[in-house]
Amino acid sequence: MRIVFVSNRLPVVIEPNEGRWSIRGASGGLVTALDPLLRGSDGIWLGWPGAVGLEPEKLESLLADFSRSQGYRIAAVPLKEKEYTQFYEGFCNQIIWPLFHDLQSLCNFEPEFWHYAQQVQQKFARAVESHGKPDDLIWVHDYQLMGLGQVLADHGLQNKLAFFLHIPFPAPDIFRKLPWRRQVLKALLRYDVIGLQTTPDLDNFLQCVQRLLPDVERQDTSRQVRLTLKGHSSVIGVFPIGIDYKEFADGAAQPTVAQKVEELRKNFAGRQIILSVDRLDYTKGVLYRLRAIALALERYPDLRRQVTFFQVIVPSRENVPQYQTLKSEIEQSVAHINGKFTEPGWIPIHHVFRNVEREELLAWYRAADVAIITSLKDGMNLVAKEYCACQINGNGVLVLSEFAGAAEQLGRWAVLINPYDTDEVAQAIKQAVMTTPAQRRPAMEKLRMNVRAENVYWWLSECLAACGISQGQPASSLAAAGVV
Ligand code: GDG
Q1: Same domain as 64, residue 22
Q2: What distance in angstroms lies between residue 405's CA and the mean position of ligand 1's atoms?
Q3: Which tens digits make up the pLDDT trace of 185-234?
């Protein structure tokens, strides 16, 4: 069965470059996960190309070039300027994103955003209809397209329809605030399969359905839940997304990466590197982390000169005012901390605000003695998994927010933190730095085994199995890898 992937954004960045348009692969959680799965297959990826103001012929030729270089087809669903602002910047980024991350006070429940969201689902549906074949599995990704399954079903499409939510599903008291809460739930229940990242997400989803759609019938099996509304059944399951472990671990072992690691070690000789890698987003808890860093340096003076915080922030959603404010607040806070604690030969925080090359990222993952993830809420957080995969010497410590989806799988072997608790995070920084190699190794080994076993191919085979597609060999499992 061929797979048609549908996501809001295509996995590309199209931008003007020295007077000409150029195209390159994008970075981001969804891309990292799906890219290796499509390469070399007969699949197709549909989505918005992200370019505004580019002639259609030029776009077509850029996409064709990119498809050839990637080994799979991509096709564009172009959005008009108003659709971009009202649907993407409005409905997606000012309503669903903050609400589903429990930040309802940041929501702007503008009725027009909903109207445009409906219009865009129709547009995506037309693209699916024109590119899909009768036996294709239509696999829709993420919160922007929760309504697409319903539109396709209403148009009479008979294909199997699957949906995966990459972000958390909120608790009923939060979800209830959405003005279109019943419409959204009913639309989701038109998909045949719904995948969520964690058990709490599944619990929240089921509670929302129970409260808001009492007519839905529920049937539990050992691994999934079947919900039936007006004669249509959906299977809902938990499928924590993984990474391509081997690609990261092998990449980190490359001589070019090893050389970069050596340079980093030389530059930071005698110091522990504490790494964070985040998209610019208020859900990643960067300001909370900076507050904890300031407290740790204040409270534990021994840490000064002993640690260097390496903070990588990747630009994101630069047109949304909240993100512009966040960027300047982060820069102010970094400047404040560096101004307060810098000494000759030592700067506490190295702040990188740009997209970094993959090799550079792998080198930082491998070189870092500690990785710290402070998400206030996160569907999964792939950075946590990538860090473990790249720890080929097994010496790192993972400090992980208990509100990142990854905590469900990795929490037992990480230093778990509540990012809102500045005291606790400051203490965790100290604890991580003080952890001896004898304590680090067994924990990192378990983390790596888990990330290797529950990798992106395992995730894919679990999702496809729920869609009734068996891939033959199970991709891997925790039991087979000896983790449990
Ligand atoms: C969403 C959910 C869920 C980052 N900077 C660079 C770079 N990256 C890559 C990382 C990682 C990805 O971006 C970030 O993934 P996350 O999972 O941390 O976060 P989101 O983008 O918010 O993703 C999230 C995910 O979907 C998957 O389901 O885990 O919870 O919010 O892969 O490596 N890559 C490169 N340069 C960078 O500068 N090359």
Answers
A1: yes
A2: 13
A3: 999 999 999 999 999 999 999 999 999 999 999 999 878 999 999 999 99
Residue 105: domain span: 3-242+457-481
Ligand 1 pocket, CB under 6 A: 27-30, 32-33, 166-167, 241, 277, 279, 314, 355-356, 358, 361, 378-383, 386
> Are 229 and 276 members of one domain?
no
Reported as a pLDDT band with limits 50, 70 and 90, residue 473 is: low
Locate the ligand 1 atom nearest the alpha carbon of residue 32 and give its number: 32
- Tell me how far apart the alpha carbons of residues 446 and 400 are, in angstroms, rounded to a whole number: 15
**CA nearest ligand 1 atom 34, residue:** 27
Q: For position 3, what pLDDT does the model report?
A: 86
Same domain, 209 and 263: no
Q: How far is CA 127 from CA 4, 25, 34, 121, in A?
A: 11, 22, 20, 10
Residues 155 and 255 in one domain: no
152 residue type, one letter: L
- Which residues on adjacent β-strands are paired with residue 48? 9
The ligand 1 atom nearest the CA atom of 384: 18
Cβ of 22: how many Cβ atoms within 10 Å?
Answer: 12
Catalytic residue list contains 378: yes
